[in-house]
Amino acid sequence: MRPLLALLAMIALPALAEDKNGAEVYESTCKECHGDGKLNAPRLGDSKRWGGLVREGLNELVPTALRGIRQMPAKGGNPALSDLEVARGVIFMANAGGGKFSEPTPADIARWRKKADASKKK
């Protein structure tokens, strides 16, 4: 039984390790606009611009990032990102702007996906 568990762990762990953290998502996708404020995107670390967004909370921010808003496409234009990775990118940027959000749970991700799917891009 133990060899089977070890084999399953060897197969599953690399898949889990593939998820990017928030900084990696920012660097690979979000930085394009949020790095220099392109298209009026709030810049990383701009607590004045992020302050209001942080007050809205992740229940607004993450679904918005998943579906897109104004000139920002869904998932920041990177459909290869998982919903978890998008959430981590949002949390990374929000925290750099004064937020104090932690790693989302699977229930958070499911709730945010449902909310994103229920509303159209604004």
Description:
- This protein has helices at residues 2-17, 22-34, 47-56, 58-67, 83-96, 106-118.
- With 122 residues, it is mainly α.
- The protein has a single domain (19-118), classed as Cytochrome Bc1 Complex, Chain D, domain 2, CATH 1.10.760.
- The longest helix has 16 residues, at 2-17.
- The model has no long low-confidence stretch (mean pLDDT 88).
List the helices and strands and how they pair.
Layout: H1 2-17, H2 22-34, H3 47-56, H4 58-67, H5 83-96, H6 106-118
Helix pairs in contact: 2-5, 3-5, 4-5, 4-6
What keyword list fits this structure?
122 residues, mainly alpha, Cytochrome Bc1 Complex, Chain D, domain 2, 6 helices
Briefly say what this structure is.
This protein is 62% helix and 0% strand.
Q: Determine and state the CATH class.
A: Mainly Alpha
The major pleated sheet works out as: none
Oligomer: single chain
What is the distance, rounded to the nearest whole angstrom, between the alpha carbons of the first and last residues?
52 Å
CATH superfamily, called what?
Answer: Cytochrome c-like domain
